[in-house]
Amino acid sequence: MDPDRILDGLDPEQLEAARALRGPVCILAGAGTGKTRAITHRIAHAVHSGVVAEQQVLAVTFTVRAAGEMRGRLRALGAPRVQARTFHSAAVRQLSYFWPQAIGGPMPTLIDSKIQEVARAAHSCGLQLDRTGLRDLAGEIEWSKATQVRPADYEAAIGKAGRTAPMPAHDVARVYEAYEEQCRDRNLLDFESLLELTAGIIIEHPQIADRVRDQYRYFVVDEFQDVNPLQKLLLDAWLGDRDDLCVVGDPNQTIYSFAGATPSYLTGFSAAYPHATVVRLVRDYRSTPQVVRVANGALRHARGPAAEHRLELVAQRPDGPDPVYTEYDDEPAEATSVARRIAALIDSGVPAREIAVLFRTNAQSAAYEQALSDAGVSYTVRGATRFFERQEIKQAVHTLRGARQDPGDDPLARTVHHILGPLGLTPQPPEGRQARERWESLAALAQLAEDVAAARPGATMADFVNELDARVATEHAPEYEGVTLASLHSAKGLEWDAVFLVGLTEGLMPIVFAESPEQVEEERRLFYVGVTRAREHLSLSWALARSPGGRKSRKPSRFLDGLRPASPSLASSRRDSRRQSRVVRCRICGTTLTDAAERKLARCLDCPADYDEALLERLKTWRRASAEKQKVPAYVIFTDSTLQAIAEHVPDDLAQLSRISGVGAVKLERYGEAVLALCAGREPADDGEEHPDGGSAQRQTD
């Protein structure tokens, strides 16, 4: 592959990163700026330029899914033998290989969860804890091991770190010591000890170090702001005295300090490597200017080391709808309204799988599960049992593998639907939560078959089973056709067309336990991560009371100051926030409007409409034809609510059209004359425009 062709399509900053092939390189990459694109093209460029052999590259990231995505992109770029792994995956391979030479004897058993062993250790110390207490204690042991704190040093270490122990510190230290001794006696290995042992044998055995460093000579570490001291120890062992290291990250997305992560390795990279190349990626290809404005505003008052490296994002997408800020009397009202608005979005053409409700704590999920169920909207809760570990999916995959030899003559999607029918994939979802969850899991497999068939006409059952096997190996579950419910932490690295950030009150955002300035700043970064998950639609809401009729004593999150209408610092930035702060009243009854759809129509949804139905139908017909020609979803051109607003206002000129929410400058330029022609009863000219976001925006996101 021509190494220069690999660089086609990169923006100037991505190109700078991809051409920095030797020595230390630090890529500071804001949310949605195409960091994965930049680093995979950099690796492929280095391989095809002869700088390094592909099998000598080790690209490290933090999740199996991210590693799988990276390998997929590298295969497409002609570098299939590059090793893209998590820290733990790379360590377990190396430790297994070198164990006989370095240590000998039976290899320890790797444990996925500490809970059972922590319970046994706590019992030996005379402590009886419920499951929540055990999980807190296991988390404290993980933090200690990740930050290289030994049991004898635990009490002093948490004082220095400003950390609050989940129980008396000396009890934590006692259980920690008992846990470590127990693991040694039972020949068990947790993930932290896995990394520590791997680093140890490299450091202590020069022959092993030489072999590892001969194998891997070129390193890339993604999400470097999330590295903890233990992972840094292993990375340094891999590197030795070499400096072919590229790190990628964003200090303002550091949200795992509670688990030992620190952005100091990223922010201090230039000090550690004074000759390093530093590249900043700030062009945001993910989100509309309206969302980017909120993201930049969220960090405007940030303090501390991470804030000193704040990246001001520059939106590359066309205009979209304004963010919606909504205050509710109580939590049930908030959940019910959010569910209603989600249903309206789905009706307007936004796929359910492209909508997410994000909250600070998992306990907030239940209200939204109930509200969405009541509204008849399918959903999935992120963080539940892994997709391919579910019993119904194991059974389905086994059955599909068996059908590979005799698939019949039907098209792939129809065959898969037929096979999954006896397992529970009925035409309509069943009643009952567990039955519904099983049905939705099987429906996700069926949807995957349809996606494969659409992407690869003529795909066979064998092709589909091979795709399933690859996804099982990388834990790459298919997307549900359902709304995602997720905590802000679990949403990291993901994105949706529409995001609802809920429960934005003091005590939840920032969380009540965030007492120190450093902890509050981490909560601010978590809020920023939530905002930057949205591509187009962003809703931010809060409730003044927990229950109906309760005391309305809650206050909106301080992180909304300067962003939401009538917030304390709005007056000082009125010009920047003019579009967000404009009061819109119903033109029928005069009520102040807060809902996005109502503000767009300039009337309450319940008030009688007075639009020209024939005009609305002509607008929809034109939109459908334009979408088919441009090969984009219809809502990308204009949403249903925008078309209805146009039909109600019937603008005479571009100035009137531009005042309708959802008609930004770019859309006005591309579609304005066509819309005005339709409003005047004429047929629009065939303008032959391309995709409204230039055909490159979504391809450049992370």
TrEMBL record:
Residues in UvrD-like helicase ATP-binding domain copies: 8-288
Binding-site residues, ATP: 29-36
Family listed: Belongs to the helicase family. UvrD subfamily.
GO CC entries: cytosol; DNA helicase complex
Catalytic activity: Couples ATP hydrolysis with the unwinding of duplex DNA by translocating in the 3'-5' direction; ATP + H2O = ADP + phosphate + H(+)
All residue ranges annotated as the UvrD-like helicase C-terminal domain in the record: 292-536
SUPFAM superfamilies, per the entry: HRDC-like, P-loop containing nucleoside triphosphate hydrolases
Pfam families: HRDC (PF00570), UvrD-helicase (PF00580), UvrD_C (PF13361)
Family matches, as Gene3D superfamilies: 1.10.10.160, HRDC domain (1.10.150.80), P-loop containing nucleotide triphosphate hydrolases (3.40.50.300), PCRA, domain 4 (1.10.486.10)
Start and end residues of each HRDC domain: 609-689
One GO process term, biological-process aspect: recombinational repair
Organism per entry: Streptomonospora mangrovi
Highest taxon, organism lineage: Bacteria
EC assignment: 5.6.2.4
Cross-referenced InterPro entries: DExx_box_DNA_helicase_dom_sf, DNA_helicase_UvrD-like_C, DNA_helicase_UvrD/REP, HRDC-like_sf, HRDC_dom, HRDC_dom_sf, P-loop_NTPase, UvrD-like_ATP-bd
Biased composition regions of type Low complexity, renumbered to the chain: 563-572
Gene Ontology MF term list: 3'-5' DNA helicase activity; ATP binding; DNA binding; hydrolase activity
Protein name (database record): DNA 3'-5' helicase
Keywords: ATP-binding, Helicase, Hydrolase, Isomerase, Nucleotide-binding
Region (Disordered): 547-576, 682-702
